[in-house]
């Protein structure tokens, strides 16, 4: 499309000015000469620095395994970030302060690591002590004896509800 716009024939002065501005805008952010060379060298240095750091972080992170031993066998789980132990063995690290072992109960001892929370003795979901019941069921209101002993003669019996000859059928149900 640019070859059509560059032809000298048929362009008025205003169109030539607009074309000139368009060409300037097209290469506005392009670097030339020394500036382009320095920019390319800076990009290469940055790529080497970030690739090296990323590769180093990847190799150190992938080789970090838990340092705990179970029955003279090293744990094969990945360690937690910024630690040397996995979630199962994090309580063996004496310097950490984020996890505590669950105290369990008298019947069932438990040493599962639990994140320290606002409570003084954190527990795993199995040993969590529920708060006291806040819901109090409503008391059943006692019905006065006067209402219970209502006269039964106010109600009609089934025999009295049967249609009779004096009532037409359309009024009986």
Automatic annotation (TrEMBL):
Compartments (UniProt record): Mitochondrion; Nucleus
GO biological process: chromatin organization
Record flagged with keyword Transport: no
Any GO CC annotation of this UniProt entry: mitochondrion
Record keyword Mitochondrion present: yes
Chief localisation class: mitochondrion
Any Pfam family: zf-C3HC3H_KANSL2
Keyword line: Chromatin regulator, Isopeptide bond, Mitochondrion, Nucleus, Phosphoprotein, Ubl conjugation
Domain KANL2-like probable zinc-finger: 73-127
Record's function text: Non-catalytic component of the NSL histone acetyltransferase complex, a multiprotein complex that mediates histone H4 acetylation at 'Lys-5'- and 'Lys-8' (H4K5ac and H4K8ac) at transcription start sites and promotes transcription initiation. Required for NSL complex stability and for transcription of intraciliary transport genes in both ciliated and non-ciliated cells by regulating histone H4 acetylation at 'Lys-5'- and 'Lys-12' (H4K5ac and H4K12ac). This is necessary for cilium assembly in ciliated cells and for organization of the microtubule cytoskeleton in non-ciliated cells.
Quaternary structure and partners: Component of the NSL complex at least composed of KAT8/MOF, KANSL1, KANSL2, KANSL3, MCRS1, PHF20, OGT1/OGT, WDR5 and HCFC1.
Protein name: KAT8 regulatory NSL complex subunit 2
Organism: Cuculus canorus (Common cuckoo)
């Amino acid at each position: 499309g640019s070859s059509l716009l560059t032809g000298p024939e048929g362009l008025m002065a205003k169109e030539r000015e607009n074309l000139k501005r368009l060409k300037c805008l097209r290469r506005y952010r392009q670097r030339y000469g020394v500036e382009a060379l320095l920019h390319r060298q800076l990009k290469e240095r940055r790529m080497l620095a970030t690739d090296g750091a990323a590769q180093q972080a990847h190799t150190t992170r992938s080789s970090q395994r838990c340092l705990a031993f179970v029955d003279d066998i090293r744990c094969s789980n990945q360690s937690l970030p910024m630690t040397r132990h996995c979630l199962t063995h994090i309580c063996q690290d004496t310097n950490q302060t984020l996890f505590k072992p669950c105290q369990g109960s008298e019947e069932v001892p438990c040493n599962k690591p639990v994140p320290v929370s606002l409570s003084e003795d954190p527990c795993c979901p199995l040993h969590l002590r529920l708060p006291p019941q806040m819901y109090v069921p409503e008391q059943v209101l006692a019905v006065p004896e006067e209402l219970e002993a209502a006269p039964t003669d106010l109600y009609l019996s089934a025999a009295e509800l049967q249609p009779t000859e004096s009532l037409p059928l359309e009024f009986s149900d």
